[in-house]
Amino acid sequence: MAMNVKPVAALEPRINEIRNLTARIINEQILPNERELWAMRRGGDATQAERDRARELRQKVQDKVKEAGLWAPHLPPEYGGSGLSFLEHAYMNEVLAYCLGAASLFGVVAPNSGNQKILLKYGTEEQKKKWLVPLTEGKMQSGFSMTEPDQPGSDPRSLKTTARRDGDQWVINGHKWFTSNGKRADFLIVMCRTDDESSDRNGRMTQIIVPTDSPGLKLVRGVEVWGHSSDHCEFIYDDVRVPLENQLGSTGSGHQAAQDRLGAGRVYHCMNSVGQMWRAFDLMVERATMREVHGGTLETKQFIQGFIAESYIDIQAARLMTIHCAQKMDSGGDARTDISAIKIFVPEAYHRVVDRAIQVWGAAGVSGDLPLAAMYQGARTLRIADGPDEVHKILIAKNVLKAYHSGETWDFGN
Ligand SMILES: Cc1cc2nc3c(=O)[nH]c(=O)nc-3n(C[C@H](O)[C@H](O)[C@H](O)COP(=O)(O)OP(=O)(O)OC[C@H]3O[C@@H](n4cnc5c(N)ncnc54)[C@H](O)[C@@H]3O)c2cc1C
């Protein structure tokens, strides 16, 4: 079933153009070849010929994406990207996310994309040449190493990994895990505690680039996730020495850099979730109109009609909340409360929609023949990664209460 994207009168012409160009690539190049393009996901079941064919097909799609001027939307042209604006990129994401994993064919691969943004904003010209350019050209891979097994990731100021100055080097000691892409990474951006007596609460952390072949850096394992081995890795940093010039930004800017990485990123992730809900919805309705049970198609049963209606409401609410938040950010407004609200609501809505789609498909819903099982795991994981729901609820309540205590009320029209 092709994605149905039509021009929207209220959108800028360039955003409509980007949505349509992206939909054309999704519908013509990716959807018909979905199984072949991701043959490698079948692990040992994929033959060498299938893997070679997947590589060939992927290259072909990537060439089409570049021809359409949509490659690496998050990067400016001087670093090989298409330099889309924030809103253009957000609207593009809901379309490209219709196919799980399609972002990689558009040059956006986490955690490299987040690291590219940090290098772009905080890197020196030298660092950009050494790390950003090869990352963008696909000659290097990277990871972001912040979360620790023994400290709560939801309270990043508590992280224990330290970096101590010794002459012209940083000496790093600590224990990290869930560093995604860790096995393939050539370098990691590591969140380190560099505080001294004078540091304020937000000035205790610094991000430092650590090449993965540095002596003292030990890859312990890829942590098993959802019953499968993974590339979310555990690392020990044991007196790892890197030159001082590997520091990103000023000393103490690490917390702010992590926030920068997440702000716009949360809108992009939510628009991705909207695209995936859209796909799950199409699959659910398609199955409901075709599957005959107990004397009628599923679409004639009220339980299933309820699933369709509730999913429609979930998707519309998630989409409009995200767009509202994106527009507020784009116009320079204070969108912190809205960012937290979408970070909670959208993954939950995504989780509900995919859950219903799986139910309608029965056994096929949890099989590898459809993208639903992978979406379900992704939706559940999103409620933990990038700050768990509870932390965002605390932030929303804090911002709202602060407004009321200062004698104002909340302006929902804003
Ligand atoms: C698939 C995956 C990929 C990841 N990739 C990366 C990566 O590349 N790099 C990286 O550094 N990290 C990564 N992470 C880690 C992720 O960022 C953390 O898991 C997340 O920040 C939560 O930290 P934590 O796991 O330590 O949970 P904790 O901080 O221990 O929190 C556990 C639970 O406690 C509850 N909680 C927390 N605070 C409060 C509170 N104030 N009040 C009430 N309840 C509360 C919440 O329910 C929360 O889920 C990844 C995680 C996953 C699952």
Verbal overview:
With 414 residues, the chain is α+β, with helices and mostly antiparallel strands. It is built from eleven helices and ten strands. The strands form three sheets. A four-stranded mixed sheet has the order 1-4-5-8, with helices on one face. It has a four-stranded antiparallel sheet with strand order 2-3-7-6, with no helix packed on it. Strands 9-10 form a two-stranded antiparallel ribbon. Helices cover 47% and strands 14% of the residues. Helix 7 (254-290) packs antiparallel against helix 8. The chain folds into three domains: 13-108, Orthogonal Bundle (Butyryl-Coa Dehydrogenase, subunit A, domain 1), CATH 1.10.540.10; 142-248, Butyryl-CoA Dehydrogenase, subunit A, domain 2; 256-405, Butyryl-CoA Dehydrogenase, subunit A, domain 3 (Up-down Bundle), CATH 1.20.140.10. Flavin-adenine dinucleotide is lined by residues 111, 144-147, 152-154, 178-180, 225, 232, 381, 384-385, 388, 390-391, 394. Flavin-adenine dinucleotide binds next to strand 1, strand 3 and helix 11.
